[in-house]
Amino acid sequence: FAVSVEPLREPGPDDSRALILMHELTAMKRTEQMRADFVANASHELRTPLSTLVGFIETLRGPAKDDPEAHERFLEIMHEQSLRMSRLVNDLLSLSRIELNEHTPPRGLADLSRILSSVKATLDMQAATKDMDIQLDIEDGLPPVTGDEDELAQVAQNLIDNATKYGRPGTPIRVTARRADSVPAAFPKAPHGAVLIRVQDQGEGIPREHIPRLTERFYRVDKARSRDLGGTGLGLAIVKHIVSRHRGALSVDSQVGKGSAFTVYLPVAASAG
Ligand code: ADP
């Protein structure tokens, strides 16, 4: 869009309309730019494993044709790259599904205790490979929240998965769920109070300047490290969208060298009082 601004000689009743129009054009331009960046990033992320696959297939059909040892090795790399692409596509699909629903508040009651226990069960093995223990600490009588259990499970899954990836081997991951005494300023008004889910690790931590950008799609503190650990760079973007659909808030506390705590605040369901 080209917007020209001319000084108003005779301010009249239409001034504010002109201003609103300009705001809208700027916002549209920004959205368009973000969409273009997103497509470029997603394509780039897919292209990397795809080129690796093509390269190895060509090698297997050519120079390494009669080398069984190379076959084994290359197939393993190709398998890894295929899984990577599949994780990426799954995350992209999740993100677009959640975005489509973002303005429809979820219905139903979600039992956080059940959700967290089941997510812990799926990640216990992964944590154990780094000698980490997922410790659940759930307050007795925790009230249900209004929410979609699958989406909230995905929030817990992404946060605990990150704690296993970026946490120090041999240290525990603490997962707490309880009623929140206070909520961050960004938390929308909730007549029945809030509960929090907190995932704490004792890992490398996150330098302060990166924290505001963590929930941007494909934003990573250390790209190579995230890739090596099998990250897609979309986990926290997904968390942010689900939390916002649930009218909740996300806060991050981290100290470099000590660890990080990700806290999700969710409104208590009406019927729970
Ligand atoms: P990724 O797939 O790269 O883990 P995420 O969106 O889940 O993508 O996280 C974005 C980035 O935030 C990560 O690449 C990492 O740099 C940082 N991060 C997320 N969780 C943690 C954590 N628990 N400790 C340290 N850094 C983290």
UniProtKB/TrEMBL annotation:
Superkingdom of this protein's organism: Bacteria
Record keywords, A-Z: ATP-binding, Cell membrane, Kinase, Membrane, Nucleotide-binding, Phosphoprotein, Transferase, Transmembrane, Transmembrane helix, Two-component regulatory system
Domain Histidine kinase: 41-270
Reactions it catalyzes: ATP + protein L-histidine = ADP + protein N-phospho-L-histidine
Chief location bin: membrane
An annotated GO BP: cellular response to phosphate starvation
Kinase in keyword set: yes
MF (Gene Ontology): ATP binding; phosphoprotein phosphatase activity; phosphorelay sensor kinase activity
Subcellular localization: Cell membrane
Protein's name according to its UniProt entry: histidine kinase
Organism annotation: Oceanibaculum indicum P24
Residues of the full protein shown: 187 to 459 of 459
